[in-house]
Each structure stands twice: as structure tokens, then as C-alpha cells.
User: What shape does this take?
Amino acid sequence: MTITQRAPAPEETPAPSATRGRLVMRPGVWLVWGGVVFFLVMLAGVVGAVVVSSFGTRWFGGWLPEGWTTRWYGESWRNFNLGGVMRVTIEVALAVVAISILVGTPAAYALARREFVGKKLLMVTFLLPILIPPFTYGIPLASVLTKYVGQNIVAVVLANLVPSVPFVILVMTPFIEQIDPKIEAAARMCGAKTLVVFTRILAPLLIPGMLAAAILILVRTVGMFELTFLTAGNDSQTLVVALFYSVSAAGIRAQQEVDSMAVLYMLSMLVLLVVALRYVNPTQLVTQIKEDRPE
Amino acid sequence: MATATDAGSAAPRTALRHRLAEHGIDRNLLLLVPAVVFVIALFIYPFLYGLQLSFQPQPGMDAAKQYGTTPFANYRLFFADSYLRDTIWITLKLGVPAALFNVLASVPIAFRMRGRFRGKRTITTILVVPITLGTVLTAEGLIAFLGPTGWLNKVLLTLHLVDDPVRLVHNYWGVLFSLIISGFPFAFLLTLAYLSGIDPSLEQAAATLGANWWSRFRHITLPLLAPGLCITFCLTFVLAFSVFPSAIMVGEPSRETRVISIAAFHAQFEQYDYAMGSAIAMIMGAIMLIVIALVFALRARFYRGATGGKG
Assistant: This one.
């Protein structure tokens, strides 16, 4: 008797709510996908306009350029000294990646493994450079760097390290927390010193995490406009900054040259992104950062 | 902090070390030293340097001419001169709607993307692509695409939806669009991450109790998502607040989109008034912190606690 009474109840309750839910959701679903498609069409328009223009001969008011050519790429490469700019970009990016990993990983280890007085305060200090807009600390930083270092590639690297080191710490701390401390304890039992624990035990286990952090820093540094713009001199511009100056100086150069430069920039970023997505799942990474954020 | 371990002299060394170790301070904290030195040398010191510089008006500059070299001359000039003061409102008028739109639009889309389905990775990748475009390329593209002879206006004119080309670049709207294009993917990724951290069985439990989708969202998901949305809002607002290249390229940098970063740049690199440049940068940081504090004060009124899921 109790069974016959109870049986229909759970079947009845979810059924109407499910159908009601589906009926109400229908237009909502279309609206959401419509929004996504609209955004993607706009995005394709924005990117497509630049790409088409960079391959066109002359483009005045028509739907498409009058003819097609690739000569703008060669000309912009020569006129804007893109070879030099590319070299500076790569040098800056690699230096920032290497230094921030070397400095950030040990700090992340200490933060992941130890509880100590003032840890919260330290975490907030490391978060600030990420939370405060680059322009705010970039302007005083530019004054300091110009005074002590000058406007050169060293200043650009130093400026880009300001958000990168905390970023490595944020990304690496959860990675280190995942590693079982017993492994280190066992190594220490066998007489390994901290340096040996680091190089022989932790480093091999942390390589995926370091790779992920390195790639994200690479993308950030290549794309970082503000800090590089504020600290770079004439011969230490990265690709984004050179692109900005060439747009500001438009009129002297053909529009297509600027566009072809923009396409080159986009392609290099896209390659970095595709490589990054092979190693890092962006949503997972953000969740890991979130867990670690002091609230 | 970390160097304190080495500070003890020979005799009470062991005792001090033990006492410090009880508070979690031991030699392993030396690992923190390089990072702390970096942050102090490259972030805290420049910040304090800028702060004290902003209280020392440079002789011969506008602020010193009008208010003398009193400590607050730069700040007084900033708030007295409407051309400077209005940059705050212009920046907020751009940053707040852009950040709000990015957060609010990413919630329903993240909801749709929550489960597993074919092509999810592809769609996520495409939505993330704008992060790599950078502000400069976005601005270039917007000028070409939305300009008077761009494709959008051509389509609108061909369909006879408008008679004259719509003016969408070199004004407020161009900058807003560029903020949405560069900020939305970021907001979407964060929202998706926060949403996937919420245990779906909570919603299923509510559904078996007869809650429809709206009350499930209103009473279960939204309170759990609110802290994440606050952080997402703050981070997208930071991005939008320091808008500089797009405000110059797709905006009207002399009037309608003269944001606060342009004012700071103008003072620092065109007038060479480092004191004024630092003062504007400090005002920028202060406004930023006020907005973040407001958002978190609002957030404190919501539920705080575990999200029940993997997060």
C-alpha cells in the first residue's frame, strides 16, 4: 500500500516542470545562439576587413578591392623594419617567460606548502599588479625605469615582469598543491636538500604546469600594449607598439601596409594561441586560479 | 619577513628559530625572497615614488602656475579643470556599460555551454580568439568594417534599412564595440569556469521539488554564481577602465572619448609634467579601487560559501 502511494509522486512532479521548462526555454535558446552567431559574424567582419584589405591593390568604396596582390607584405616588412621588431618581440617575450618562471615558481612553492604570518597580506600584494590597470602603475614605473635604466629593451622586460611574476605565482600555486607532499618528505628522508628536491623531484612533476604558465605569459607579453608602450624607446618596440605607431602615422604609409602588419601580428598571436590551447584548457585554468584567490 | 630567520645572533639562535617555526617561518620562506624583491622594486617602489612625485608639482607647469607648488596643486588642478575632471565620467561611461554588458551577456551563453556536446571546444576556441587580436587590430578592423564605406554600412544601405551610412566609428560607439570585442571572451571564459564549478545536482534537487527554471536560476544558481560574477565584473572593468589605444584610434580622443588614460599620457609624455602624470595615475587607481570596493560591498549582501561542486 505504501509502495503504490509513493510510486506515482516522483514521476508526476518532475514531468510538468520539465515540459514547462522546455517550453519557456525555447525562445531563450534561440536568442542565445542568435547572440553568439551575431557576435561571431561581427568578429569575422572585423578580422575579414583587415585581411582582405591587406591583400588588395586599391579599395575605394567597393565590396571588394579592385585586384589582389601580396606586395604589401614585403613593403611593410621593409618600411617598418619588421625583422628588427620581430627580433625585439621574441627577445622580450622569451626573457620575460624565463625570468618570471624562475622567480615565480619557488615563491609559488612556498605559498602552496607553508602557512605563515602575513601570508594573506603577501597574496594581496601579489594580486595587486594583476588587479590594477597597467596604465596606473605603468606611468610611475616608466618614470623610475627611465631614470635608472633608460628607454631600452631591459626596461621593457622589467616592466613586463611586473604582472608576469604574480601571474606565474597564481597559476603555479594550485599545480604545486596537487602534488603529494609525501613524495618530497620521502626524498628529504633519504637526505635530499631543498635544491635537490626542486631539481630532481618537483621540476619533472611541475613541467606541465610550467609549460602552461610559460605559454600564457608568452601570449600576454606579446599582446601587452600599455607597459611596453610606456617604457619602450625607438629601437625596443614590440610588434603591438610598432603597429600602434604605424596606425598613428597613417597617411604617410599606405593603409594596406598597416593592415598587412596587423595580419602578421594576428597570425603570430593565433599560432601562440593554438599552441597554448593544445596544452592548457582555459576554463580549467581559471577555475584553478579561482580556488586560490584569497576572498 | 623571510630574512628574519637569519637575524638571530649565535646564542639564542635555536630558540628563536623554534619560536619562528611555530609561526610557520623557516628557511623555506627564503624561496619567496626573489619574488618579493621583484614586487617591491618594480611595483611598490614605483608606486610610492609616483605618489610622492604627485605631491611635488613641477615649477613652470600649469598646476604650479595656478596653485603654486603646494602639495595638492596637481589634484586641485585636476578637479578644478573640467577638461581634466570630465575624463573620469567619460571613462566610467565607457567602462561600466562595457563591463556590465560583457558579464550579463556571458551568463546565458555560459549556461548553454555548460554541458558536454559536440563542437564545444571549437566554439570555445572561436570565442577566445578575440583575446589574441589585441586592441590595435580590433581598432583597425572596426574602422574598416564599421566605417562609412565598410561592409556593415554597405549591407544596411543595400537592404534600405538606412538612408545614410551610420556613424559607428570615431565616436563613443566605436570604443564601446572594441571594449566588448576584447572584453567579452575574457568574461565568458571566467563565467563558464565559475558556472562549471557549481554542482548540477543542486539544481536537479530543486527540479525534483517542482521548481521551474526561473526559480532554480533565481534561488540556486544566481546566489552561487554571484561571487564569481563580481570578480568577473571587476576584471573586465579593469580592462575597460585602462582603455587607451582604441580610445585614440576608433574614438574621438580630443573630446568624446578623452578617457583618463589619455589625460595621464598627455601630461606625462607630451607636456613632460611627470608630477601631473603621476597624480592622474593615482586618481585612476583610486577610482578603480572605489569601484571594486563598491562591487564587493554589494557582493557581501549575497550568500557566501561553498559552491558544492568541484570548485
Q: What stands out?
A: Confidence is low (pLDDT under 50) at residues 1-10 of chain B. Residues 82-112 of chain B form the longest helix (31 residues). Chain B is about 70% helix and 0% strand.
